């Protein structure tokens, strides 16, 4: 072989899927390594080459502080200027070693990482490990490190990407580096300070970590804002006229079913006024039809599907949370069933082969006849939508049957396919007839609708419109009044936000990206700041979430508003497009948040007032367990998260291991510090081991980490 080409995908399953497409006749050999290596021979740039296709498993590195800054006793303000380092995501270091071994004496590298900013960032993590092992010639190494751009795992897309290789984009990778460092430093500074400050004072917070996040906190703020609206809402009574009429015969008798009318004034908020209107209407014996209008209306078909719309539908219609929806969509993508699921685009590219997708789906037992009809009668090329310049919209790429996919995977695929078919279908058309009826000087209405063309709703059945049959009326027709009632009602507060509504707000305010939105919503759930309630999946904030946001609002509202994060996202976009320098954006943002952190720390007492009014102090919480080695008085055991011991006399708190059982250990004391020993045990057999609370938090010997 005249050359060797190393190709790397983001996941092992993706590497295998692409290998099956590119290997001649689908034949290849596989070596079982840290990540499988698929090998075959094929032509590349005019020469016969050996191809090796392997993968990483997501990010190769995680960003963290250097070791000296991992001590929570360090002043959190120092974290804004602290040194950071990229550490291998795999604790064993096996992925880095694997890449270094496989890259020895190779001629070319082709990167098949996901085609978004995160994927671009992983490209450069891979390059860091493979560049050194490459052959020195021909040409410089960078010219032989290539990037494949693709949006679907289909033979057409993959071969097209292979024929149109480009170079990786360092600016997009740097934008991710900047975002990672900002999130790490800002999040850790606020989180460490808050966690230490409040967990040392309160016993029933029910959260190990009281975190702050530049994205998660504004997301939580949306939920708390709605909660505040609900709690401050004052219901107000109103009254409306409920009137029913009917057609009448020649002798004035009722000759048809009752027809309920809608009052033109809708409602009034004064009962006395409402009663006057009721008496005025009751003073009439007949109603008269004064106008009949009939108009045709259109409901437009949906735009092409993007990530945000998929997440919203998954939550509101399928009852699947955004995080799980994204996991399922990514799995469907790697299996080749759908196109790349992370996209902001809602318009099909001009060269998109709609006919090919329709042909693939025309044999499906559920929607095949509909797809075939679109092929035969012609489909409507979608208009409108937005081309965000990232990836094509989400579409089906391979036919799947209900037996091929299980549970929620099938439901997501079913929706994606039906949405695609709906987006190229005719619009829904209907006719609406409005009838205005007068009783004295008061106007009432009734209406009916008739579907003229179901259009896209034939396949998107959840958007079906049904006929609302209404009796036929004639101009100036006299109707018999059957009943005139006064109905009392009350205004109601808005409901808690659904996940779908929160996603809409995040997109509107530029909080997160299509890929990170599910992560931020999942974070506020995991932190016990909100709970997901009911089939509508409403996000109801907990006391902890409410107090945090109210505290930020008292000290510095910017900390919980979406404007700060959206401004940062704009700066990151400038890095990605080459309009701003990585270092400049990083310095500006860190200086801004460092100043805000100092102000927050100096005024945290304002937030503490809210905590004190909501939560129990450590002194009033817990049960007596063992003795303090300093004051010789009893320590109190706090069983709620985070598990800890508290000395009311010394006002000191000692963390303990979680997910187990804690009890006194035979009344014995630690020989080093006189603290009473406790026993920690896990499992049904309850076999435990003794530990000293003080030594657990302050290791007495060198090279022993806290908590060991």
Mean pLDDT across the residues is: 92
Number of separate domains: 5
The CATH topology of the largest domain is Topoisomerase I, domain 2
Helical element count? 19
Parts with pLDDT < 50 across at least 5 consecutive residues? none
Question: If strands are numbered along the chain, what order do they take across the biggest sheet?
Answer: 2-3-4-1-7-8
Largest sheet: 6 strands, mixed
What is the β-strand count?
A: 23
CATH superfamily of the largest domain: Topoisomerase I, domain 2
* Rg, alpha carbons: 33 Å
How far apart are the first and last residues' alpha carbons, in Å? 54 Å
Shape: flat
Helical content (DSSP H or I, runs of 4+):
25-40%
The assigned structural class equals: alpha+beta
Q: Report the sheet-strand fraction.
A: 15-25%
The CATH architecture term of the largest domain is: Orthogonal Bundle
CATH class of the largest domain, anyone?
A: Mainly Alpha
Oligomer: single chain
Family: Belongs to the type IA topoisomerase family.
Catalytic activity: ATP-independent breakage of single-stranded DNA, followed by passage and rejoining
Keywords: DNA-binding, Isomerase, Topoisomerase
GO biological process, one term: DNA recombination
